[in-house]
């Protein structure tokens, strides 16, 4: 029975020893923590946050032109389809599709034989009428002298006078017949009414045509028209003095100056848009009918506008935000109100001012209060 007390004493000493050891460890930990705080040991502090690399611009206010843009297709300044003024057989055509012709150039010939014979006949009729008129005039002059002397009767004089008047009328009719025949003969040669390009040839040699049958379609490309349609909100700002700059997909990088030539006075009922026609000089005939084109109309200018790149804006659900950099290179979040766009720029109505340093690249990795490092390139 003696050994039991011995084991109890050993257990108590073991527990006491462990308790003392634990207390010493806790005290040592507390000492080192307190010592680290007092000395500012970097090992005891959290690591400093690294600056975020970004690119920035300094905002400069400038005049902002208000641009209205629209697309359409180029049209000839003038288009005309020549028609036959007399019936007949096509004997020749002197020009074909794609040819550039000057005003007065003969394009198509109708066989003239019948019209030449008609003119010869009309001239013969005129010669006969003039001979008859000459005889009637002589008789009238003679009877006019004899009537006062009562050598001829009144009835005979009246008869001669009537024949003279008839001869005068027949001579005038014969003159008109010659004029008509000459005019019809001229119409066998169909000419260009203005300098133009031949767009369509409607006839073939040997084809019989009637009056008003189409012969050729001509287009004038010395100037071209661009017809576009604008919504009401844009159309109300347009007037005839606005500057028009036209670009064509077929000629990237080139711009053509135009002027507003016509404004519709009523809206299109189907689309509720208004038509605008722009006239463009095309002396070198570079622009072709049917090409797709875009016009930029400068309708107004906003002075001292704050413009920034659109990609600098952070689009939130109900707001638009940007980051600027303050004097100590810290990022600050700004809520902005935006306005009109121009190419890749957008106008800031509220929230920024001239001189602000705006983050334009890297803003997606920035948080308010972050330190910033500015890079030339990223």
Give a verbal description of the structure:
This protein is 29% helix and 38% strand. A hairpin with a 5-residue loop joins strand 15 and strand 16 (331-342). Mean pLDDT is 88; it is low at 1-7 and 36-46. The chain starts with a helix and ends with a strand. Helix 2 (113-146) runs antiparallel to helix 3. Among the domains are: 3-42; 53-63 and 303-374, Beta Barrel (conserved putative lor/sdh protein from methanococcus maripaludis s2 fold); 112-187, Orthogonal Bundle (Helix Hairpins), CATH 1.10.287. With 378 residues, it is an alpha+beta fold.
Summarize the structure.
The chain is an alpha+beta fold and 378 residues long. The chain contains four helices and 19 strands.
Q: Which key terms come to mind for this protein?
A:
conserved putative lor/sdh protein from methanococcus maripaludis s2 fold; 378 residues; 19 strands; 29% helix; alpha+beta; Helix Hairpins; single chain; 4-stranded antiparallel β-sheet; 4 helices; 38% strand
Number of helices: 4
What would the CATH topology of the domain at 53-63 and 303-374 be?
Answer: conserved putative lor/sdh protein from methanococcus maripaludis s2 fold
Question: For the residues shown, what is the average pLDDT?
Answer: 88
CATH architecture of the domain at 53-63 and 303-374: Beta Barrel
How many β-strands, per DSSP?
A: 19
Approximate helicity band: 25-40%
Radius of gyration: 50 Å
Uncertain residue ranges: 1-7, 36-46
* Helix/strand class: alpha+beta
| Ends distance | 87 Å
Q: In sequence order, what are the helices and strands, one letter per element?
A: HEEEEEHHEEEEHEEEEEEEEEE
Strand order of the largest sheet: 2-9-12-11-10-13
């Amino acid at each position: 029975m003696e050994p039991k007390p011995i084991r109890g004493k050993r257990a108590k000493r073991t527990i006491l020893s462990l308790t003392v050891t634990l207390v010493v460890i806790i005290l040592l930990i507390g000492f080192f923590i307190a010592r680290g705080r007092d000395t500012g040991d970097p090992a005891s502090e959290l690591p400093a946050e690294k600056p975020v690399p970004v690119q920035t611009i300094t905002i400069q206010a400038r005049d902002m032109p208000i641009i209205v843009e629209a697309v359409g297709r180029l049209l000839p300044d003038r288009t005309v389809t020549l028609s036959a003024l007399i019936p007949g057989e096509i004997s020749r055509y002197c020009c074909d599709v794609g040819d550039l012709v000057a005003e007065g150039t003969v394009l198509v010939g109708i066989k003239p034989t019948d019209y030449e014979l008609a003119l010869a006949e009309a001239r013969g009729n005129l010669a006969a009428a003039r001979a008859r008129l000459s005889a009637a005039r002589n008789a009238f002059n003679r009877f006019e002298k004899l009537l006062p002397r009562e050598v001829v009767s009144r009835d005979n004089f009246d008869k001669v006078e009537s024949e003279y008047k008839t001869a005068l009328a027949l001579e005038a009719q014969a003159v008109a017949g010659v004029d008509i025949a000459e005019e019809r003969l001229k119409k066998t040669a169909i000419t260009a009414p203005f300098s133009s390009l031949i767009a369509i040839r409607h006839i073939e040699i040997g084809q019989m045509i009637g009056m008003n049958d189409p012969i050729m379609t001509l287009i004038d490309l010395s100037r071209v028209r661009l017809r576009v349609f604008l919504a009401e909100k844009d159309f109300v700002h347009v007037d005839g003095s606005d500057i028009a700059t036209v670009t064509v997909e077929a000629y990237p990088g080139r711009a053509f100056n135009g002027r507003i030539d016509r404004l519709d006075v009523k809206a299109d009922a189907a689309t509720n848009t208004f038509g605008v026609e722009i006239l463009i000089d095309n002396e070198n005939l570079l622009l072709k009918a049917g090409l797709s084109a875009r016009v930029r109309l400068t309708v107004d200018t906003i002075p001292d506008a704050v413009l920034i790149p659109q990609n600098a804006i952070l689009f939130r659900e109900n707001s638009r935000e940007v980051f600027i950099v303050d004097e100590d290179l810290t990022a600050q979040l700004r809520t902005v109100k935006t306005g009109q766009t121009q190419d890749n720029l957008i106008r800031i109505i509220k929230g920024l001012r001239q001189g602000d340093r705006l983050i334009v690249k890297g803003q997606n990795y920035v948080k308010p209060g972050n330190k910033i490092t500015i890079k030339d390139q990223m």
